[in-house]
Specification:
360 residues, Urease, subunit C, domain 1, TIM Barrel, 2 domains, five-stranded mixed beta sheet, 12 helices, 20 strands, 26% helix, globular
Length: 360
């Protein structure tokens, strides 16, 4: 990445349209090999690139936000420039299933192109942890006494045990008051929430405007989630799934996590039945520090094309989880940008190998 006045570059832009070298390969010294990129200025413009889905445009950034998209060469010539000639520019990715308390590497995720994440189980202390990416937090799962995950990997506060509908309602209120953006419940394991407890969780969450996400891997659990009006599945189910059960999920959401658990055939069936797919890796269980090539490839194998994958990783979760300034490159959006060596609509795996990540 090299910064320089726009006036010095304008006459060269027509010649650079097919350039494929590093962003640092612009005729100025880049410093020691392996050195970190120079800090971004507060106000700059990314020139020469193709904004994915919108065409060739220069992206003006100020104070960490996209200020404007300009016709090529039309930005203020006094602004510092980042040369993205021959590249594609995509919005930062949203990972809809992470566990940052379990694997606290938010900086690595952000540096790898993840602009936002949905943390789907953490102790209540995680509400106070600052991260370099935007986080929608569930806090601990609301679960039965002795229920998943309190007797396994989540024994350290990843589950909030309740007994009875009253305690279930109070648990949701307590989590919402601490900043929860959604509520997660486990289904299909024993001991489990009763029907009355699950209904109380969903009613209390929806009354607060919060979606409910279910850990539900079997057909029985998927059916129970649908009957309780749960909004999203935290994973693609791995058990045998009937067409009837898949149809119950029409209009609801499905977080992929294929690289963690598999289930590509079920994802394809749920998507065909009308479920909206969201990109998610179960980071903490998986370890890709950035955008996961394995998850992207699994989505390709499940039948999603580049446009569907990009939607699942940007606009869809932004709308589902209230990331109002993520999911698109437009004025007012957070300027967490991926500079790519290929068009992700044709080669979605390019999202996992950004040439540069520009972020606030």
């Amino acid at each position: 990445m090299t910064l320089r006045p726009l006036a010095r570059l304008a006459c060269l832009l027509p010649l650079l349209g097919c350039a494929r070298g590093s962003l640092r390969s612009t005729g100025e010294p880049s410093g020691e090999t392996g050195a970190a990129p120079a800090p971004l200025p507060g106000h700059y413009v990314v020139v020469g690139g193709v904004v994915v889905g919108q065409g060739r445009a220069d992206v003006e950034v100020s104070a960490g936000e996209v200020r404007a998209l300009h016709a090529p060469g039309a930005a203020d010539p006094a602004l510092p420039v980042i040369d993205a000639a021959g590249r594609w520019i995509a919005p930062g990715i949203i990972d809809s299933h992470v566990h940052l308390a379990y694997l606290p590497e938010g900086e690595a995720l952000a540096a790898g192109g993840v602009a936002g994440a949905v943390d789907l189980a953490a102790p209540v202390s995680a509400f106070d942890v600052a991260e370099p990416l935007l986080i929608a937090r569930a806090g601990p799962m609301v679960t039965a006494v002795g229920g998943y995950p309190t007797r396994s990997w989540g024994a350290g506060g990843y589950g909030l045990e309740v007994r009875g509908a009253g305690e279930a309602t109070a648990a949701v209120a307590a989590l919402a008051d601490q900043g929860a953006a959604l509520i997660k419940v486990p289904l299909g394991s024993s001991p489990a929430l009763t029907t009355a407890e699950l209904d109380a969780v969903v009613a209390a969450a929806h009354a607060r405007g919060l979606p409910v996400v279910a850990h539900a891997l079997s057909e029985e659990a998927v059916r129970a989630a649908a009957a309780a009006d749960v909004d999203l599945l935290a994973h693609t189910p791995t058990g045998s799934l009937s067409a009837e059960a898949a149809r119950l999920w029409a209009g609801r959401g499905l977080i992929s996590t294929l690289s963690a658990f598999g289930g590509g055939e079920n994802l394809a069936a749920l998507r065909a039945a009308g479920a909206e797919v969201l990109y998610g890796t179960d980071f903490g269980n998986t370890r890709a520090r950035g955008v996961s090539a394995a998850e992207l490839q699994a989505l390709v194998d499940a039948g999603l094309d580049g446009a569907a994958i990009l939607h699942a990783a940007t606009a869809a979760p932004a709308a589902r989880f209230g990331f109002t300034n993520l999911g698109a490159i437009s004025p007012g959006a957070r300027a967490h940008l991926l500079v790519l060596d290929a068009d992700p609509l044709l080669d979605p795996l390019t999202l996992s190998r950004p040439v540069e990540v520009l972020r606030p």
